[in-house]
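Entry 14: structure prediction run for ADP-heptose synthase. Input pasted below.
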Amino acid sequence: MQIRKLVTLEEACRIREQLRKEGKRVVFVNGCFDVLHGGHISYLADARAQGDVMFAAVNSDKSERALKGPSRPIYTQEERLEILDAIRYIDYLILFDDLTVEPLLRALRPDVHAKGTDYTKDNVPERAIAIELGFETYIAGAPKENSSRDVISTVVERFGGLESDKLPADR
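Run finished. Output tokens:
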């Protein structure tokens, strides 16, 4: 399947320049988005409401594995991009290998960088670059009630000891 919203960083920078000329407010979000859940959707919807166009930077399999351990990702980068491509709040997707989004923030210089509610404006890892470059940090989404880790733990707890032929049927 073709991922329509996927752009390279170079393409994203060209798009960003055009949007700047048009006076559009650009929002930037980032994450692994592995085992997508309702908290992700709340985050993306709230973030998108802060501007006219939203870029979502997605950790590659390599960077997610480095950040979260050898058992991750659950979904490949291609699967995660395909899922995110279907979400209406996202205008553009960027896949990245780095462990931080600082290079992308420096290149794109968004108006708003939205982070989830597991952060505050004072403890986001990108706080220093936000101050340096002058973009807004916005804490988006409903208070965090679950995480991908929680979803994975629930699945393992409920079905971890079952053989695949004993799992509940897909309907």
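Notes: The chain has a mean pLDDT of 89. Will compare against the previous run tomorrow.
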